[in-house]
Design brief:
The chain is α+β, with helices and mostly antiparallel strands. 42% of the residues lie in helices and 15% in strands. It has 2 domains: 2-216, Orthogonal Bundle (Endonuclease III, domain 1), CATH 1.10.340; 227-355, Nucleoside Triphosphate Pyrophosphohydrolase (Alpha-Beta Complex). Strands 1, 2, 3, 4, 5, 6 and 7 form a 7-stranded mixed β-sheet that branches. A hairpin with a 2-residue loop joins strand 1 and strand 2. The chain is elongated and about 75 Å long. The chain binds a DNA duplex through helix 6, helix 8 and strand 5.
Length: 356
DNA sequence: GTCCAGCATG
DNA sequence: CATGCTGGAC
């Protein structure tokens, strides 16, 4: 009875699945790469990144031997950059600890940096056919609608109930197809808005559909809203032998955009007058009474992060190279042509493309 | 313009 | 339980 739902799901999947590159391989490395890229990311957005990534890093060793900067560069624009840094670290770990052979059991897979319960279950089932059921956003939605789960799925009790219900329909002897089938149904049919219930193979079993309450699920508790953050970036330009240079700043290990590059600047949690900011910046970076005024000011540019709503301003300032106070050697001078070699956030990428 | 989808970590 | 990114839907 319960396995019929699972079998129906698999039959539907085999007939309707999208042809995607990571579905045509058993290489655990390639499946791992695809799963990390697709964490918190839609296929439409991640596909081109995956294709470029595996051409440059076709094996664990290729990834392990690359520099972090280059790996981040291949990740530029995808967001959640810790995924790239963790995957790079894990590639080195596999290379040393397992002599380059991808671990083939759930616990070792899950011990890799950046691999949590979802990704470990996905790799274990898809690459090694081990009976671990995945729970991602799609599965939460499908299961909570199918069983009319009233407890919020983003709570411990909600997850326990989803897991329990999921395991009643899980097809243990075909975990790879079952897991991909339920996620594919969530992505293609049981969508967050405007789900296509009339096409759904599970609609006769679906509590939400039968009660005409599909939009009531999944139940979620709302999270804290983001705080405002004001960023003032200074584009310090100087001319040398007919070449245009600007200063980049390497971000540290703290807070957002770890280890990416941006411009030197100041940040505040509340509004600030532009001339105050410029004065403060000059005092900090130019100890010798620097009087040049900004040439161009761009902003405010809005940029939304998970827990911060950013308002960014970009201030262009012509300078004499030698006068900059370079704290901790965080600043590097690069030509405008060289800018493209450095990994940057989408906010910075957009500014460079439009203005430099 | 605002909101939401999509996992891992400390 | 708080934090990290971006794109697309609305």
């Amino acid at each position: 009875m319960t396995t019929k739902i699972g079998q129906d799901l698999i039959a539907w999947y085999k007939k309707n699945k999208r042809d995607l590159p990571w579905r045509n391989t058993n290489d655990p490395y390639l499946i791992w790469v695809s799963e990390i890229i697709l964490q918190q990311t839609r296929i439409d957005q991640g596909l081109s990144y995956y294709l470029r990534f595996v051409v440059r890093f076709p094996s664990i060793e290729d990834l392990a031997n690359a520099s972090e900067n280059e790996v981040l560069k291949y990740w530029q624009g995808l967001g959640y950059y810790s995924r790239a840094r963790n995957m790079h670290a894990s590639a080195k770990q596999i290379s040393e600890l397992y002599k380059g052979k991808f671990p083939d059991n759930y616990d070792q897979i899950k011990s890799l940096k950046g691999v949590g319960p979802y990704t470990a279950a996905a790799i274990a089932s898809i690459a090694f056919n081990l009976p671990h059921a995945v729970i991602d956003g799609n599965v939460n939605r499908v299961i909570s609608r199918l069983y009319g789960i009233e407890i919020a799925v983003n709570t411990n009790n909600g997850q326990k109930l989803v897991d329990e219900k999921l395991n009643t329909i899980f097809v243990r002897n075909d975990p790879a197809n079952f897991n991909q089938a339920i996620m594919e149904l969530g992505a293609m049919i049981c969508k967050p808005s405007s789900p296509e219930c009339n096409k759904c193979v599970l609609n006769v079993n679906c509590v939400a559909f039968q009660q005409n309450r599909v939009n009531d699920f999944p139940v979620k508790i709302k999270l804290k809203s983001p705080e405002l953050l004001y960023l003032f970036y200074f584009i310090l330009k100087y001319q040398n032998n007919s070449q245009q240079f600007v200063y980049l700043n390497k971000r540290g290990e703290n807070a957002i955009w770890k280890n990416l590059y941006d411009f030197p600047g100041l940040q505040f949690n509340s509004k600030k007058e532009m001339n105050e900011v410029v004065t403060e910046f000059k005092q900090k970076y130019f100890p010798n009474n620097f009087t040049q005024n900004p040439e161009k000011i761009t902003g405010p540019i809005k940029h939304q992060l998970t827990h911060k709503s950013i308002l960014a301003f970009f201030i262009e300032l012509k300078i004499d190279k030698l006068s900059v106070n370079n704290f901790d050697d965080k600043l590097i001078a690069v030509t405008v042509e060289e800018l493209q070699k450095y990994p940057v956030s989408k906010l910075i990428e957009n500014y460079i493309k439009a203005n430099l």
